[in-house]
Specification:
Number of domains: 2
Number of helices: 10
Largest sheet: 8 strands, parallel, barrel
CATH architecture of the largest domain: Alpha-Beta Barrel
Shape: globular
Distance between the termini: 64 Å
Helix content: 25-40%
Structural class: alpha/beta
Number of strands: 20
Bound molecules: 2-acetamido-2-deoxy-beta-D-glucopyranose
Protein backbone atom coordinates (compact mmCIF):
# COMPACT_ATOMS: atom_id res chain seq x y z
CA UNK A 1 0.00 0.00 0.00
CA UNK A 2 2.60 2.44 1.24
CA UNK A 3 4.88 1.86 -1.69
CA UNK A 4 2.00 2.14 -4.11
CA UNK A 5 1.05 5.51 -2.66
CA UNK A 6 4.65 6.60 -2.94
CA UNK A 7 4.67 5.59 -6.54
CA UNK A 8 1.54 7.60 -7.20
CA UNK A 9 3.07 10.58 -5.48
CA UNK A 10 6.16 10.13 -7.59
CA UNK A 11 4.13 10.13 -10.80
CA UNK A 12 2.21 13.14 -9.62
CA UNK A 13 5.45 14.97 -8.91
CA UNK A 14 6.78 14.01 -12.29
CA UNK A 15 3.60 15.28 -13.91
CA UNK A 16 3.76 18.58 -12.05
CA UNK A 17 7.43 18.93 -12.94
CA UNK A 18 6.78 18.31 -16.63
CA UNK A 19 3.92 20.72 -16.52
CA UNK A 20 6.04 23.40 -14.89
CA UNK A 21 8.83 22.88 -17.39
CA UNK A 22 6.46 23.07 -20.33
CA UNK A 23 4.80 26.10 -18.81
CA UNK A 24 7.95 28.07 -18.17
CA UNK A 25 9.38 27.28 -21.58
CA UNK A 26 6.01 26.94 -23.30
CA UNK A 27 6.34 30.35 -24.85
CA UNK A 28 9.85 29.64 -26.09
CA UNK A 29 9.69 29.82 -29.79
CA UNK A 30 13.30 29.29 -30.78
CA UNK A 31 14.59 30.28 -34.17
CA UNK A 32 14.31 27.35 -36.58
CA UNK A 33 17.65 25.60 -36.56
CA UNK A 34 19.52 25.54 -39.83
CA UNK A 35 23.12 24.48 -39.15
CA UNK A 36 25.07 27.69 -38.73
CA UNK A 37 27.82 28.18 -41.29
CA UNK A 38 29.24 31.41 -40.04
CA UNK A 39 32.23 33.65 -40.14
CA UNK A 40 33.48 35.80 -37.29
CA UNK A 41 33.79 39.52 -37.85
CA UNK A 42 36.93 39.60 -35.70
CA UNK A 43 38.95 42.79 -35.27
CA UNK A 44 36.00 45.04 -36.13
CA UNK A 45 34.19 46.21 -33.00
CA UNK A 46 36.84 44.79 -30.66
CA UNK A 47 40.32 45.74 -31.81
CA UNK A 48 43.04 43.13 -32.33
CA UNK A 49 46.25 44.64 -33.66
CA UNK A 50 47.52 41.48 -35.36
CA UNK A 51 44.40 41.44 -37.53
CA UNK A 52 44.92 45.02 -38.75
CA UNK A 53 48.31 46.38 -37.62
CA UNK A 54 47.91 49.65 -39.55
CA UNK A 55 45.30 50.77 -37.02
CA UNK A 56 48.19 51.43 -34.62
CA UNK A 57 50.52 53.16 -37.10
CA UNK A 58 49.82 56.78 -36.20
CA UNK A 59 49.92 56.42 -32.40
CA UNK A 60 52.58 58.74 -30.95
CA UNK A 61 55.29 56.84 -29.05
CA UNK A 62 53.57 53.60 -30.09
CA UNK A 63 56.22 51.34 -28.54
CA UNK A 64 54.87 52.27 -25.15
CA UNK A 65 51.23 51.24 -24.97
CA UNK A 66 49.25 49.91 -22.03
CA UNK A 67 50.35 46.43 -21.09
CA UNK A 68 53.75 46.67 -22.80
CA UNK A 69 56.24 44.65 -20.74
CA UNK A 70 59.48 46.53 -20.12
CA UNK A 71 62.70 45.28 -18.53
CA UNK A 72 65.61 47.47 -17.40
CA UNK A 73 69.20 46.25 -17.07
CA UNK A 74 71.47 48.57 -15.14
CA UNK A 75 74.70 49.37 -17.03
CA UNK A 76 76.58 49.53 -13.73
CA UNK A 77 75.34 46.40 -11.91
CA UNK A 78 74.84 44.70 -15.31
CA UNK A 79 71.72 43.18 -13.75
CA UNK A 80 68.00 43.64 -14.14
CA UNK A 81 65.63 45.68 -12.05
CA UNK A 82 63.37 43.29 -10.20
CA UNK A 83 60.35 43.56 -7.95
CA UNK A 84 61.69 41.45 -5.07
CA UNK A 85 59.26 38.58 -4.31
CA UNK A 86 57.25 39.69 -7.35
CA UNK A 87 56.00 42.74 -5.50
CA UNK A 88 55.02 43.96 -2.04
CA UNK A 89 58.50 45.20 -1.10
CA UNK A 90 61.58 46.91 -2.60
CA UNK A 91 62.84 47.01 -6.18
CA UNK A 92 66.33 45.51 -6.50
CA UNK A 93 68.91 45.49 -9.31
CA UNK A 94 70.46 42.08 -8.81
CA UNK A 95 68.90 39.66 -11.30
CA UNK A 96 70.98 38.31 -14.16
CA UNK A 97 68.03 36.90 -16.13
CA UNK A 98 64.77 38.70 -16.83
CA UNK A 99 61.41 36.99 -16.50
CA UNK A 100 58.15 37.71 -14.62
CA UNK A 101 59.47 39.57 -11.57
CA UNK A 102 61.82 41.60 -13.77
CA UNK A 103 59.03 42.74 -16.09
CA UNK A 104 57.13 45.96 -15.51
CA UNK A 105 53.79 46.45 -17.27
CA UNK A 106 53.06 49.95 -18.48
CA UNK A 107 49.99 51.95 -17.73
CA UNK A 108 50.04 54.80 -20.21
CA UNK A 109 48.77 58.15 -18.90
CA UNK A 110 49.76 60.04 -22.01
CA UNK A 111 52.42 59.57 -24.66
CA UNK A 112 55.26 60.36 -22.28
CA UNK A 113 53.99 59.52 -18.78
CA UNK A 114 53.51 56.03 -17.36
CA UNK A 115 52.92 53.95 -14.27
CA UNK A 116 54.67 50.61 -13.78
CA UNK A 117 52.84 47.51 -12.55
CA UNK A 118 54.76 44.51 -11.21
CA UNK A 119 54.15 40.75 -11.28
CA UNK A 120 51.99 40.65 -8.14
CA UNK A 121 50.01 43.63 -9.46
CA UNK A 122 51.36 46.36 -7.18
CA UNK A 123 52.35 49.70 -8.67
CA UNK A 124 55.83 51.12 -8.42
CA UNK A 125 56.33 54.16 -6.20
CA UNK A 126 58.65 55.73 -3.69
CA UNK A 127 59.13 55.18 0.01
CA UNK A 128 61.14 58.28 0.81
CA UNK A 129 63.57 58.11 -2.10
CA UNK A 130 63.69 54.30 -2.26
CA UNK A 131 61.94 52.55 -5.13
CA UNK A 132 59.27 50.09 -3.96
CA UNK A 133 56.28 48.16 -5.33
CA UNK A 134 53.80 48.32 -2.48
CA UNK A 135 50.72 50.27 -3.54
CA UNK A 136 47.68 48.34 -4.72
CA UNK A 137 46.06 51.44 -6.15
CA UNK A 138 47.35 53.06 -9.29
CA UNK A 139 46.59 56.60 -8.21
CA UNK A 140 48.77 56.27 -5.11
CA UNK A 141 51.78 55.25 -7.22
CA UNK A 142 54.41 57.38 -8.91
CA UNK A 143 54.41 58.37 -12.55
CA UNK A 144 57.48 58.02 -14.74
CA UNK A 145 58.93 59.20 -17.99
CA UNK A 146 61.18 56.90 -20.03
CA UNK A 147 63.88 59.11 -21.57
CA UNK A 148 65.63 57.48 -24.53
CA UNK A 149 69.17 58.38 -25.59
CA UNK A 150 67.80 58.54 -29.14
CA UNK A 151 64.83 57.12 -31.01
CA UNK A 152 66.62 53.97 -32.09
CA UNK A 153 68.66 53.40 -28.94
CA UNK A 154 67.82 51.04 -26.09
CA UNK A 155 69.67 53.26 -23.57
CA UNK A 156 67.16 54.94 -21.32
CA UNK A 157 66.78 56.84 -18.08
CA UNK A 158 63.72 56.70 -15.90
CA UNK A 159 62.60 60.06 -14.60
CA UNK A 160 60.13 60.26 -11.72
CA UNK A 161 57.44 62.96 -11.81
CA UNK A 162 59.17 64.66 -8.85
CA UNK A 163 61.99 65.50 -11.26
CA UNK A 164 64.57 62.97 -9.98
CA UNK A 165 66.12 60.16 -12.04
CA UNK A 166 66.31 56.58 -10.81
CA UNK A 167 69.74 55.09 -10.15
CA UNK A 168 70.84 51.55 -9.35
CA UNK A 169 72.99 52.65 -6.44
CA UNK A 170 73.86 49.07 -5.53
CA UNK A 171 72.38 45.69 -6.40
CA UNK A 172 69.94 46.01 -3.53
CA UNK A 173 69.25 49.74 -3.49
CA UNK A 174 67.42 51.61 -6.25
CA UNK A 175 66.73 55.24 -5.47
CA UNK A 176 65.25 58.35 -7.04
CA UNK A 177 67.73 61.03 -6.01
CA UNK A 178 69.68 62.22 -9.04
CA UNK A 179 68.64 65.61 -10.36
CA UNK A 180 71.34 66.30 -12.96
CA UNK A 181 72.54 63.86 -15.61
CA UNK A 182 75.04 64.09 -18.46
CA UNK A 183 76.04 61.66 -21.19
CA UNK A 184 75.21 57.94 -21.42
CA UNK A 185 78.37 56.32 -20.10
CA UNK A 186 78.67 52.72 -18.89
CA UNK A 187 79.61 53.83 -15.37
CA UNK A 188 76.48 55.96 -14.96
CA UNK A 189 74.04 54.28 -12.52
CA UNK A 190 71.10 56.24 -13.99
CA UNK A 191 71.49 54.50 -17.36
CA UNK A 192 69.57 51.30 -18.15
CA UNK A 193 69.25 49.06 -21.19
CA UNK A 194 65.61 48.67 -22.15
CA UNK A 195 64.09 45.43 -23.45
CA UNK A 196 60.48 45.19 -24.52
CA UNK A 197 59.33 41.69 -23.61
CA UNK A 198 55.69 41.79 -24.66
CA UNK A 199 53.11 43.97 -26.29
CA UNK A 200 49.36 44.20 -26.30
CA UNK A 201 47.30 45.67 -29.13
CA UNK A 202 43.67 45.61 -28.10
CA UNK A 203 40.88 48.15 -27.84
CA UNK A 204 42.25 49.66 -24.63
CA UNK A 205 45.68 50.13 -26.22
CA UNK A 206 44.44 51.70 -29.44
CA UNK A 207 42.00 54.12 -27.85
CA UNK A 208 44.27 55.12 -24.98
CA UNK A 209 47.21 55.29 -27.39
CA UNK A 210 45.55 57.83 -29.64
CA UNK A 211 44.03 59.61 -26.67
CA UNK A 212 40.69 61.39 -26.27
CA UNK A 213 41.18 63.88 -29.10
CA UNK A 214 42.25 61.51 -31.89
CA UNK A 215 40.72 58.15 -30.93
CA UNK A 216 37.10 58.96 -31.88
CA UNK A 217 38.04 59.82 -35.45
CA UNK A 218 40.39 56.87 -35.87
CA UNK A 219 37.85 54.36 -34.57
CA UNK A 220 34.98 55.84 -36.57
CA UNK A 221 37.07 55.50 -39.73
CA UNK A 222 37.96 51.89 -38.84
CA UNK A 223 34.39 50.87 -38.03
CA UNK A 224 32.98 52.38 -41.22
CA UNK A 225 35.59 50.88 -43.57
CA UNK A 226 36.72 47.52 -42.16
CA UNK A 227 33.30 45.88 -42.56
CA UNK A 228 30.84 47.30 -45.08
CA UNK A 229 27.55 46.30 -46.68
CA UNK A 230 29.33 44.51 -49.52
CA UNK A 231 30.85 42.10 -47.01
CA UNK A 232 27.37 40.88 -46.08
CA UNK A 233 26.59 40.44 -49.74
CA UNK A 234 29.81 38.44 -50.16
CA UNK A 235 28.94 36.32 -47.12
CA UNK A 236 25.44 35.56 -48.38
CA UNK A 237 26.70 34.71 -51.87
CA UNK A 238 29.41 32.32 -50.74
CA UNK A 239 27.53 29.66 -48.83
CA UNK A 240 27.55 31.25 -45.38
CA UNK A 241 24.33 31.91 -43.48
CA UNK A 242 25.47 33.77 -40.36
CA UNK A 243 28.07 36.00 -38.74
CA UNK A 244 29.40 35.93 -35.20
CA UNK A 245 30.13 39.50 -34.17
CA UNK A 246 32.52 40.10 -31.27
CA UNK A 247 31.56 43.19 -29.25
CA UNK A 248 32.97 44.85 -26.15
CA UNK A 249 31.08 45.74 -22.96
CA UNK A 250 31.51 49.48 -23.62
CA UNK A 251 29.13 49.18 -26.59
CA UNK A 252 26.25 49.39 -24.10
CA UNK A 253 27.41 52.80 -22.81
CA UNK A 254 26.70 54.49 -26.11
CA UNK A 255 27.35 57.30 -26.92
CA UNK A 256 29.86 58.07 -24.16
CA UNK A 257 31.59 55.00 -22.75
CA UNK A 258 34.11 55.42 -19.94
CA UNK A 259 37.52 56.56 -21.22
CA UNK A 260 39.60 55.53 -23.03
CA UNK A 261 36.81 53.80 -25.00
CA UNK A 262 34.98 55.84 -27.58
CA UNK A 263 31.37 55.68 -28.72
CA UNK A 264 30.25 54.58 -32.15
CA UNK A 265 30.53 50.78 -32.20
CA UNK A 266 26.79 50.56 -31.47
CA UNK A 267 26.00 52.44 -34.67
CA UNK A 268 28.22 50.04 -36.56
CA UNK A 269 26.37 47.08 -35.02
CA UNK A 270 23.05 48.69 -35.99
CA UNK A 271 24.34 48.78 -39.57
CA UNK A 272 25.31 45.11 -39.38
CA UNK A 273 21.72 44.26 -38.45
CA UNK A 274 20.38 46.28 -41.40
CA UNK A 275 22.75 44.63 -43.86
CA UNK A 276 22.15 41.17 -42.36
CA UNK A 277 18.42 41.56 -42.83
CA UNK A 278 18.85 42.76 -46.40
CA UNK A 279 20.96 39.73 -47.35
CA UNK A 280 19.22 37.15 -45.16
CA UNK A 281 22.20 36.62 -42.86
CA UNK A 282 21.77 35.65 -39.17
CA UNK A 283 23.72 37.31 -36.38
CA UNK A 284 25.28 35.80 -33.28
CA UNK A 285 26.22 38.63 -30.92
CA UNK A 286 29.32 37.58 -29.01
CA UNK A 287 30.40 39.48 -25.89
CA UNK A 288 34.11 39.14 -26.54
CA UNK A 289 35.33 41.68 -24.00
CA UNK A 290 33.71 41.75 -20.56
CA UNK A 291 34.44 44.43 -17.95
CA UNK A 292 37.84 43.95 -16.27
CA UNK A 293 38.70 41.18 -18.77
CA UNK A 294 37.72 37.53 -18.48
CA UNK A 295 41.03 36.15 -19.76
CA UNK A 296 43.75 38.82 -19.71
CA UNK A 297 44.21 38.76 -23.48
CA UNK A 298 44.15 41.82 -25.73
CA UNK A 299 41.07 40.39 -27.44
CA UNK A 300 39.11 40.87 -24.23
CA UNK A 301 40.50 44.40 -23.97
CA UNK A 302 42.68 43.74 -20.95
CA UNK A 303 44.75 46.78 -20.02
CA UNK A 304 47.85 45.00 -18.80
CA UNK A 305 47.22 41.25 -18.92
CA UNK A 306 45.21 41.18 -15.70
CA UNK A 307 42.05 39.10 -15.55
CA UNK A 308 39.58 40.52 -13.05
CA UNK A 309 36.18 39.67 -14.47
CA UNK A 310 34.01 37.61 -12.15
CA UNK A 311 35.92 38.57 -9.03
CA UNK A 312 33.27 41.08 -7.96
CA UNK A 313 29.47 41.06 -7.96
CA UNK A 314 29.64 44.46 -9.67
CA UNK A 315 31.35 43.36 -12.84
CA UNK A 316 29.11 40.30 -13.15
CA UNK A 317 25.99 42.44 -12.79
CA UNK A 318 27.41 45.01 -15.20
CA UNK A 319 27.89 42.23 -17.74
CA UNK A 320 24.34 40.98 -17.31
CA UNK A 321 23.19 44.56 -17.98
CA UNK A 322 25.21 44.67 -21.21
CA UNK A 323 23.57 41.42 -22.38
CA UNK A 324 20.16 42.76 -21.47
CA UNK A 325 20.81 46.01 -23.33
CA UNK A 326 21.93 44.25 -26.49
CA UNK A 327 19.14 41.69 -26.52
CA UNK A 328 16.49 44.35 -25.89
CA UNK A 329 17.85 46.45 -28.74
CA UNK A 330 17.87 43.69 -31.35
CA UNK A 331 15.20 41.24 -30.15
CA UNK A 332 12.79 42.35 -32.86
CA UNK A 333 15.26 41.94 -35.68
CA UNK A 334 14.67 38.77 -37.72
CA UNK A 335 18.47 38.53 -37.94
CA UNK A 336 19.12 38.07 -34.22
CA UNK A 337 19.88 34.38 -34.00
CA UNK A 338 21.87 33.95 -30.81
CA UNK A 339 23.57 35.81 -27.99
CA UNK A 340 26.88 34.52 -26.66
CA UNK A 341 27.16 35.61 -23.04
CA UNK A 342 30.96 35.80 -22.77
CA UNK A 343 33.86 34.59 -24.92
CA UNK A 344 36.64 32.35 -23.63
CA UNK A 345 36.61 32.93 -19.87
CA UNK A 346 39.92 31.59 -18.60
CA UNK A 347 40.25 28.87 -15.97
CA UNK A 348 41.15 28.93 -13.13
CA UNK A 349 40.89 32.74 -12.79
CA UNK A 350 37.22 32.56 -13.71
CA UNK A 351 35.79 29.83 -11.51
CA UNK A 352 33.09 27.46 -12.71
CA UNK A 353 30.90 28.59 -9.84
CA UNK A 354 31.05 32.29 -10.76
CA UNK A 355 30.65 31.51 -14.43
CA UNK A 356 27.61 29.27 -13.88
CA UNK A 357 26.01 31.95 -11.77
CA UNK A 358 26.63 34.50 -14.52
CA UNK A 359 25.35 32.16 -17.23
CA UNK A 360 22.06 31.72 -15.39
CA UNK A 361 21.63 35.46 -14.89
CA UNK A 362 22.71 36.26 -18.46
CA UNK A 363 20.32 33.65 -19.82
CA UNK A 364 17.43 35.18 -17.89
CA UNK A 365 18.39 38.61 -19.22
CA UNK A 366 18.18 37.31 -22.79
CA UNK A 367 14.86 35.57 -22.12
CA UNK A 368 13.31 38.72 -20.69
CA UNK A 369 13.41 40.08 -24.24
CA UNK A 370 13.62 37.14 -26.60
CA UNK A 371 12.09 33.68 -26.64
CA UNK A 372 13.72 33.02 -30.00
CA UNK A 373 17.42 33.66 -29.55
CA UNK A 374 19.72 30.78 -28.71
CA UNK A 375 22.00 31.50 -25.78
CA UNK A 376 25.60 30.49 -26.29
CA UNK A 377 27.78 29.48 -23.35
CA UNK A 378 31.49 29.48 -24.10
CA UNK A 379 33.53 26.71 -22.52
CA UNK A 380 36.36 28.00 -20.34
CA UNK A 381 39.88 28.10 -21.75
CA UNK A 382 42.37 26.01 -19.86
CA UNK A 383 42.41 22.41 -18.84
CA UNK A 384 38.79 21.81 -17.98
CA UNK A 385 36.37 18.90 -18.33
CA UNK A 386 34.72 19.59 -21.72
CA UNK A 387 31.26 18.83 -20.30
CA UNK A 388 31.61 21.05 -17.25
CA UNK A 389 28.82 23.38 -18.42
CA UNK A 390 26.30 20.56 -18.89
CA UNK A 391 24.78 20.93 -15.40
CA UNK A 392 24.06 24.63 -15.89
CA UNK A 393 23.05 24.22 -19.56
CA UNK A 394 20.55 21.48 -18.74
CA UNK A 395 18.16 23.91 -17.13
CA UNK A 396 18.52 26.53 -19.88
CA UNK A 397 16.35 25.72 -22.90
CA UNK A 398 17.91 26.77 -26.18
CA UNK A 399 21.42 26.89 -24.82
CA UNK A 400 24.49 26.08 -26.86
CA UNK A 401 28.03 25.16 -25.81
CA UNK A 402 30.79 26.92 -27.76
CA UNK A 403 34.12 25.11 -28.21
CA UNK A 404 37.08 26.58 -30.07
CA UNK A 405 39.32 24.24 -32.03
CA UNK A 406 42.73 25.50 -33.18
CA UNK A 407 45.66 23.26 -34.17
CA UNK A 408 47.82 25.99 -32.65
CA UNK A 409 48.81 27.48 -29.29
CA UNK A 410 49.91 24.14 -27.81
CA UNK A 411 53.33 22.58 -28.19
CA UNK A 412 51.78 19.25 -29.25
CA UNK A 413 51.08 20.85 -32.65
CA UNK A 414 54.58 22.29 -33.12
CA UNK A 415 56.10 19.50 -35.19
CA UNK A 416 53.01 17.91 -36.71
CA UNK A 417 53.13 17.20 -40.43
CA UNK A 418 50.34 18.04 -42.85
CA UNK A 419 48.93 14.54 -42.61
CA UNK A 420 49.21 14.40 -38.82
CA UNK A 421 47.25 17.64 -38.58
CA UNK A 422 44.54 16.26 -40.84
CA UNK A 423 44.45 12.97 -38.92
CA UNK A 424 44.13 14.96 -35.71
CA UNK A 425 41.02 16.63 -37.13
CA UNK A 426 39.49 13.39 -38.38
CA UNK A 427 40.26 11.36 -35.28
CA UNK A 428 40.79 13.54 -32.26
CA UNK A 429 38.54 16.49 -33.05
CA UNK A 430 35.80 14.10 -34.10
CA UNK A 431 35.94 12.34 -30.77
CA UNK A 432 36.18 15.61 -28.82
CA UNK A 433 33.15 16.97 -30.64
CA UNK A 434 31.22 13.70 -30.27
CA UNK A 435 31.89 13.81 -26.56
CA UNK A 436 30.15 17.19 -26.14
CA UNK A 437 27.42 16.58 -28.74
CA UNK A 438 24.79 14.49 -26.97
CA UNK A 439 21.22 13.77 -27.94
CA UNK A 440 19.66 15.27 -24.83
CA UNK A 441 22.32 17.82 -23.92
CA UNK A 442 22.98 21.35 -25.15
CA UNK A 443 23.60 22.09 -28.82
CA UNK A 444 27.23 22.40 -29.85
CA UNK A 445 28.98 25.16 -31.76
CA UNK A 446 32.57 25.29 -33.01
CA UNK A 447 32.53 29.06 -32.69
CA UNK A 448 36.16 29.54 -33.74
CA UNK A 449 38.45 27.57 -36.03
CA UNK A 450 40.88 28.40 -38.83
CA UNK A 451 42.72 26.64 -41.62
CA UNK A 452 46.11 27.60 -40.19
CA UNK A 453 48.69 25.46 -38.44
CA UNK A 454 52.36 25.30 -37.49
CA UNK A 455 53.37 23.55 -40.70
CA UNK A 456 55.96 25.53 -42.65
CA UNK A 457 55.88 25.65 -46.44
CA UNK A 458 52.57 23.86 -46.93
CA UNK A 459 51.10 23.91 -50.42
CA UNK A 460 47.74 25.27 -51.47
CA UNK A 461 46.50 21.70 -51.80
CA UNK A 462 47.62 20.95 -48.23
CA UNK A 463 45.57 23.89 -47.00
CA UNK A 464 42.58 22.79 -49.06
CA UNK A 465 42.67 19.32 -47.51
CA UNK A 466 43.08 20.74 -44.02
CA UNK A 467 40.15 23.12 -44.48
CA UNK A 468 37.99 20.39 -46.01
CA UNK A 469 38.66 18.01 -43.13
CA UNK A 470 37.62 20.66 -40.63
CA UNK A 471 34.49 21.60 -42.58
CA UNK A 472 33.47 17.93 -42.65
CA UNK A 473 34.05 17.36 -38.94
CA UNK A 474 32.76 20.69 -37.58
CA UNK A 475 29.77 20.38 -39.90
CA UNK A 476 28.57 17.72 -37.46
CA UNK A 477 28.33 20.18 -34.57
CA UNK A 478 24.61 20.35 -33.78
CA UNK A 479 24.46 24.16 -33.81
CA UNK A 480 27.15 24.79 -36.41
CA UNK A 481 30.52 26.48 -36.82
CA UNK A 482 32.16 29.86 -37.38
CA UNK A 483 35.52 30.50 -39.09
CA UNK A 484 37.93 32.92 -37.44
CA UNK A 485 37.80 35.40 -39.19
CA UNK A 486 36.47 37.30 -42.26
CA UNK A 487 39.34 39.77 -42.73
CA UNK A 488 42.92 39.57 -41.61
CA UNK A 489 46.28 40.72 -43.00
CA UNK A 490 47.41 37.12 -42.41
CA UNK A 491 45.87 35.46 -45.44
CA UNK A 492 44.93 32.06 -44.03
CA UNK A 493 43.13 33.74 -41.17
CA UNK A 494 40.95 35.64 -43.66
CA UNK A 495 38.01 33.60 -44.91
CA UNK A 496 37.45 36.25 -47.55
CA UNK A 497 40.96 35.65 -48.89
CA UNK A 498 40.61 31.87 -48.59
CA UNK A 499 37.38 31.89 -50.60
CA UNK A 500 38.55 34.40 -53.21
CA UNK A 501 41.76 32.43 -53.76
CA UNK A 502 40.13 29.04 -54.01
CA UNK A 503 41.42 27.56 -50.73
CA UNK A 504 37.94 27.08 -49.30
CA UNK A 505 34.70 26.40 -51.10
CA UNK A 506 31.43 26.01 -49.24
C1 LIG B 1 51.62 64.08 -19.86
O1 LIG B 1 51.19 64.19 -18.52
C2 LIG B 1 52.13 64.91 -17.72
C3 LIG B 1 51.62 64.80 -16.28
O2 LIG B 1 50.28 65.14 -16.21
C4 LIG B 1 52.24 66.33 -18.21
O3 LIG B 1 53.17 67.04 -17.43
C5 LIG B 1 52.72 66.30 -19.66
O4 LIG B 1 52.73 67.62 -20.18
C6 LIG B 1 51.80 65.44 -20.50
N1 LIG B 1 52.41 65.26 -21.80
C7 LIG B 1 51.71 65.34 -22.93
C8 LIG B 1 52.48 65.13 -24.18
O5 LIG B 1 50.51 65.57 -22.94
C1 LIG C 1 47.69 45.02 -1.15
O1 LIG C 1 46.90 43.85 -1.34
C2 LIG C 1 47.46 42.70 -0.73
C3 LIG C 1 46.64 41.49 -1.15
O2 LIG C 1 45.28 41.76 -1.04
C4 LIG C 1 47.47 42.92 0.79
O3 LIG C 1 48.04 41.80 1.42
C5 LIG C 1 48.32 44.17 1.10
O4 LIG C 1 48.28 44.45 2.47
C6 LIG C 1 47.81 45.37 0.31
N1 LIG C 1 48.77 46.44 0.47
C7 LIG C 1 48.44 47.65 0.83
C8 LIG C 1 49.55 48.64 0.92
O5 LIG C 1 47.29 47.98 1.06
C1 LIG D 1 68.65 40.33 -4.43
O1 LIG D 1 68.54 41.17 -3.30
C2 LIG D 1 67.53 40.81 -2.37
C3 LIG D 1 67.46 41.88 -1.30
O2 LIG D 1 68.66 41.93 -0.59
C4 LIG D 1 67.82 39.45 -1.81
O3 LIG D 1 66.80 39.05 -0.92
C5 LIG D 1 67.90 38.45 -2.94
O4 LIG D 1 68.24 37.18 -2.47
C6 LIG D 1 68.92 38.92 -3.98
N1 LIG D 1 68.83 38.01 -5.12
C7 LIG D 1 69.92 37.66 -5.81
C8 LIG D 1 69.68 36.74 -6.98
O5 LIG D 1 71.04 38.04 -5.53
C1 LIG E 1 59.86 20.13 -32.27
O1 LIG E 1 61.08 19.97 -32.97
C2 LIG E 1 62.12 20.76 -32.46
C3 LIG E 1 63.32 20.63 -33.41
O2 LIG E 1 63.54 19.28 -33.71
C4 LIG E 1 62.43 20.32 -31.04
O3 LIG E 1 63.45 21.12 -30.49
C5 LIG E 1 61.17 20.48 -30.19
O4 LIG E 1 61.38 19.99 -28.90
C6 LIG E 1 59.99 19.76 -30.80
N1 LIG E 1 58.77 20.09 -30.09
C7 LIG E 1 57.91 19.19 -29.64
C8 LIG E 1 56.72 19.69 -28.89
O5 LIG E 1 58.04 18.03 -29.85
C1 LIG F 1 44.55 11.28 -31.13
O1 LIG F 1 43.74 10.18 -31.01
C2 LIG F 1 44.43 8.93 -31.17
C3 LIG F 1 43.40 7.83 -31.23
O2 LIG F 1 42.55 7.89 -30.13
C4 LIG F 1 45.40 8.77 -30.02
O3 LIG F 1 46.12 7.56 -30.14
C5 LIG F 1 46.37 9.94 -30.07
O4 LIG F 1 47.24 9.89 -28.95
C6 LIG F 1 45.66 11.28 -30.09
N1 LIG F 1 46.63 12.27 -30.43
C7 LIG F 1 46.88 13.31 -29.68
C8 LIG F 1 47.98 14.22 -30.17
O5 LIG F 1 46.27 13.57 -28.65
Amino acid sequence: MGSHANQKLWFLNLFVLCYLVSFSYGRLNLNPLPRVKAVNLGGWLVTEGWIKPSLFDAIPNKDFLDGTGVQFKSVTTKKNLCAESGGGTIIVANRTAASGWETFKLWRLNQSTFRFRVFNKQFVGLDGNILVAISNTSSASSTFEIVKQSDDSNRVRIKVSNGYYLQAKTEVLVTADVSKVTGWADDDPTVFLLTISGRMQGEFQVTNGYGPLKAPGVMEEHWSTFIVEDDFKFIAQNGLNAVRIPVGWWIASHPSPPPPYVGGSLKALDNAFLWAQKYGVKIIIDLHAAPDSQNGFEHSSSRDGSQEWGKTEENIQQTVDVIEFLTARYAKSPSLYAVELINEPLSPGVTLERLSKYYKAGYEAVRRHSSKAYVVLSNRLGSIPPRELFPVASSLMGSVIDVHYYNLFQSMFDNMTVQENIDYINTNRTSQLNYVTTSNGPLTFVGEWVAEWQVQGATKEDYQRFAKAQLDVYGRASFGWAYWTLKNVNNHWSLEWMIKNGYIKL
